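Input.
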Amino acid sequence: MFFIFPVRDEYGVKRFPFAVLSLIIINCVVFFISFFSPYYHQIIMEYGFIPSRFSFRNIFTSMFLHGSLLHLGFNMWYLWLLGDNIEDRWGRLNFLIFYFMAGIFATILYSSIIPERYRNIPIIGASGAISGILGAYAVLFPKSRITFKYFYWVFLKIGTGEFEIYSYLWLTFWFLQQAVYTLLVAKSKVESSVAFAAHFSGFIFGMIVAFGTKIFKEAKYRENVMYGKNALINLLGKNPEIERSITEKEEIEKAKREIIENIEEDRVYATKIYEKLIKKYPEVTLPEKIQIKISQSLERQGKFETALLSYRNFVLNYPFSKLADNALFSLGKIFLQMGDYEKAKNSFLQIVLFYPYSDVYEEAKFYLEKKLPEILKNHSIIY
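Output.
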């Protein structure tokens, strides 16, 4: 016997998932009231969704009914495990709208593809909505590491353990499994009391919505960054356009190659080469990922003035990078460390104004609203 179960994901949340918890509580209360009622069968027939008797009311009510404690437990655990991240990313109201829309979509699509023999059987459970969450999670957090616990019992040997796997690998396998069973049931190859088609449909809905929000976010991100480019130049200054000689260009390219070759094995040495390079050619910028690694290395070594120049070049040359907001945040902290409170404030303000979807948005707001005013108050500076 072998049993495997996801127990935690990698990402924490910034806000407590009240919407997720509320759904769990409501589902549990409804389950214990209905399941242990002597009229349980009548409740299922009255409030479960029967495809041959289409009812929007029953699509909604069926999401709160479950067939067993195990059915409820699995659904609520997945809701808690992954739903908190979706709620944290989209906000409570948007999450709730998405949750119910996923359930509605899954139920309707299920009704349209199941064989005729299933059309008078009530469908119950939150699985369609939960599958929507799984689909959205696969798109929004593909590289999140999911920890699984496993248990096995072979003859007299019993063992347990755990392992990690990227969410996109696990959820891709899960989705393919649901797709195969959906096809087999539709082709009358197998009989099942599990609504695989609802799982399949909900997952697709979740992926579509998540992809849509990512595309919108990217478009809004680029619009904000374009608008904020002039503000960045006002804050950081503009690199002069300098015409270099062939000898100077060769010297710069040689130094760049040496930095790139050594960045992983000997970052300190690569950083020293970069320091010499920008001392002579302060406007020079390395490839995106190399530039940010050099900047972080300089910051860790406490070489704040050089780190400022490095981060500055990164932000000015790669304003659309997904790391530009992090570079700005680092600039703000370094300015703060060096006592330049006005530039620190402006760095954090850039994130709040022009990078509203940033992972460091809340931290930047915290520095602007709490940290900086406290520091300035202690230094008797008017903010």
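The chain has a mean pLDDT of 85.
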